[in-house]
Amino acid sequence: MNIGIAGLGLIGGSLGLDLRTLGHYVLLISRSPDTCKQAVAIGAVDAACQEASMIPYLSETDVVFICTPIPAIVPTIAAIVSAIRNNAPQVLSNTIFTDVGSVKSAIVSEATKLCRFVGSHPMAGTAFSGINAAERNLFNSRPCVITPSEDREAMSVVRSLWTSIGMLVYECDPEAHDRSVAWISHLPVMVSAALILSCQRESDTGVAQLAQNLASSGFRDTSRVGGGNPELGRLMAEYNQTALLQTLHTYQDVLQSLISDIENGNWDALQVLLERTQAARLLYTK
Ligand code: NAP
Fold this sequence. Notes:
It is built from twelve helices and nine strands. By secondary structure, the protein is of the alpha/beta class.
């Protein structure tokens, strides 16, 4: 297949590496001449072009993955669709678009008006960003959401591409996706950030320094997502505000109940709760 990728950072670059390994021809569409050169040099794409010069290649492209930050996804689709419409309108009915954005409602509702679109969210990542962070097999054995569409052919093509790089594909509507990821992705970022901010409030500098010296694997695990890409965290909150707030209010209630048990010395009740969480964690980490 001929595949276009717009936005070649961690996710787009890793996708390019895996799709090329499977024998697909991969074209990068990037705003940056440096990224174009580097992408070809590291083997993440077969060819690269800046937006202004992409038209000759696009007439050959079957599927375009939009891998830019969330706010740029719909504008990037609009720019590519407009370029195709002006130069090779017959191609538009063949080309399938998908994305990788971490939220779906805001993107799917707009993108569907512009082109043959299936929303995607591959649930894979690292703490790093940019093209240098791209790695092979990032997606292997990880879940990926695709959103429903009446265009069954487009869904089947997008599903089979994710499956071919090892992803476990789930179909769900954008609202259910956004509520689910609020629980397991967006809330953890805010909770982990709150943990780091709370530690910073220790007023005794000796104790604060000692805590930094003593911090080990437990703190590394619980603080990891709160110490990740700040722009990504902000965008999760901005584009999934309603669902994230619901989870944060529930979290606040649960935290208050834990505080009450500790204040009142309800040690048996606390242990029962922790036994429940020990068992329940396995539901999310199997
Ligand atoms: P990233 O490493 O920062 O890569 C994004 C790339 O998009 C950049 O390298 C940049 O390349 C390009 N870009 C940046 N701003 C742009 C703009 N305004 N217009 C066009 N291109 C732009 O980010 P990422 O982690 O790969 O995330 C990309 C997408 O994947 C996001 O939508 C995110 O929600 C989603 N996602 C991320 C993760 C994760 O864990 N990181 C997981 C799943 C999904 P140039 O500077 O070369 O143009």
